[in-house]
Amino acid sequence: MLTSIRGRIVVILLLVVGSGAYLYQRGIKLGLDLQGGMHLVLEVDDPSETLTVEARSDAIDRAQRIIRTRIDELGVEEPLIQKVGQDRLIIELAGISDEARAKEIIGQTAFLEWKLVRRTGEMQAALPRIDRAVVASLGADALREMGRDVEGPSTQNLEALIFGGETADTATEGSEEGATAEGEAAGEDTDQDADVEAEESTLRPFTALLNQGGFDGVYLVAEEDVEMARRFLALPEVERALPRGVTLQWGWQPVGVGARTYRELYILESTAFLTGDMLEDATANRDPQFNQAQVQFQLSRQGGRRFSDLTGQHIGDNIAIVLDNEVVSAPVVRDRIGARGQIDLGQAPMEEARDLALVLRAGALPAPLRVMEERTVGPSLGQDSIDQGQMAGIIGLILVILVMIGYYRFGGFLAVIALSVYVLLVMGGLAALNATLTLPGIAGLILSIGMAVDANVLIFERIREELDVGRTVRTAVDEGFGHALSAIVDANLTTLITALILFQFGTGPVRGFAVTLSIGIVASFFSALYVTRTLFLVYLGRKRTVDALSI
Length: 551
Fold this sequence. Notes:
The longest helix has 34 residues, at 508-541. The chain is built from 20 helices and 18 strands. A hairpin with a 5-residue loop joins strand 6 (211-212) and strand 7 (218-222). 56% of the residues lie in helices and 17% in strands. The model is unreliable at 148-201 (pLDDT under 50). It is of the alpha+beta class.
């Protein structure tokens, strides 16, 4: 059937109709460089370089699976998520409309913990030690300088806060009981040393930043003082001054109290009694009573038992829900809680709640990732690329048609018909495979058009040679196709192998080029050897004798 003229026509029509159907139903998916989107290169964030090469590679492998799950739930079509080397990940999201949201979802570690809130009274004995540790580490002069340099609403009284409610001058004067003038004290070295010791004993650089929070176990720090408090808490001496088994962690967003904005600082147990590894599901909704965003979660059976036991022992206490070292909420335990619970997000928008539920369902990243490269392609730039690619393709096709018909006349006309079938087969093949067309892919398409034309050129030159030595037209056509077959197979096969290698080891744009080139090679091979020959057979079959062939 495949060798008869009727069988050949049926095969060609089936392929043409199938390609047209796929092209009509699915269309061509455009890549990042054609419709716009985001390109990220991520790497394991390991500043101390404590992870081995194997550990970094394993972390990237697990991160790749988790990020793919997050992106799939985000609804991005045909994302590219590819590991490069041992510790890098390339992500391309074509057609993404909210790059900031996508970047936050991709990069969020989403390490979830449940920790008990400790009482404020447990910190009282440690606060003087922390203040002394800050003074010993930074020095009184540096603290004074910080007080003068900080800008914001608290600038005027910041030095008074740092020095325990007294300015540096009044602290010095208070340490010199009975002194009536600075000149009298300045003359005595012993008194000066005593003044300095008295002044440093009144320094409360950290304690002065703390205000009582909404419940026992949380402080409030004015938003303008948060940076300074973070600097204090990052000191190794301060970490050693904390009570054993206690850690201080910040709230995830500012809170308003009166006319000022504060950040909550929670006193927590350093060890979590439950982590997100035992989380099975998370959904976002609104609290019907207070109309606040929340995320309801479902724990595994083991996690539910552990959660139930601990909440039963701590009724009336607060439990902090910690996400990436920031406290999202710290509800009070009213009753024993089983495998289901909720995270209250207050006045946060529902989109934020949905994103949090999404990353919790996908799981936590095994290690933090940092963005090494970020590139955003706007839709207008993508449209320019499409227009330029279309223009290049149209110009190329017109030139090919003119050259083929002008040089090979009737044979060139048949080759142009076969070329039209070739273009439809390539587009249908891309649609059938759900492949993404990129700008390099257009280049691959144009290159494969050249290869299709090259195959026809080989065939026509062979036919000319046979006609020149006196062969009949039918014999010359048969011999021409037969002699050109080996050269066409060799050229297409070597190019196809190269395209497969590019697809295996290349990244996004290179893979797009390889896919289009591979489909184009197969289609060009079919159109040149099968479609063009079928057209010749149809032409020759309509005439009993053919004395000449315009080629």
